[in-house]
Specification:
By secondary structure, the protein is an alpha/beta fold. The protein contains 6 helices and 9 strands.
Length: about 200
Amino acid sequence: MLLGVPKLDRVMGEVREGDVFLIETVGSLGVELLSEVILNNREKRNVSIILPKGASEKRVLPAEGTEVMVLGEDVHAERLYEILHHIRELPEGSVLVAIRLDVLFLLRPREAVFMFMEDPVSTVQKKKIILIMTVDKRNVDERDMAVFENLATHILDITEIVKGFKVTLVMRVKKSPKGSTGFCEFEIEGGRVSINGPPNAL
């Protein structure tokens, strides 16, 4: 599967079935990129989205042609089991998008979150499902982020750089089979993502 952003696809290479793609971000930064990935792949693949209740990302993500599962305000064990059951029932080659998994740390004990994560990751690898996760860096400490990073085959780091009155959106490939890159600028124009950066970035 290609993400659909040519410059990024050239650097990261193809995301293969069974791969785990992690987007480290702040709030909903980069959700347009995720939306573009879904739009570029929903005709070819079954797409399911897991997101927390009231997530602002829902307004930007394409609803047509996708199945959405919402985490409730109180994420109890029964709800997590329902989601795991849904993941196990997904057809081979599907795309599973998990938005803001860091919210689980606010609702469940750390050990329960890690136990929950082991199951979907092993399931997507067995069933050759592509898993794309986003994590808000503000809600996860370095130790917890390391757990997510160890699970991932590809990591994209998105953040903002503030210089004076100018705020710039930047991204870097933190981990992929082809290696990593430095930060480069990216912009969203008319719902499309464009990347501008020096050769040593992207």
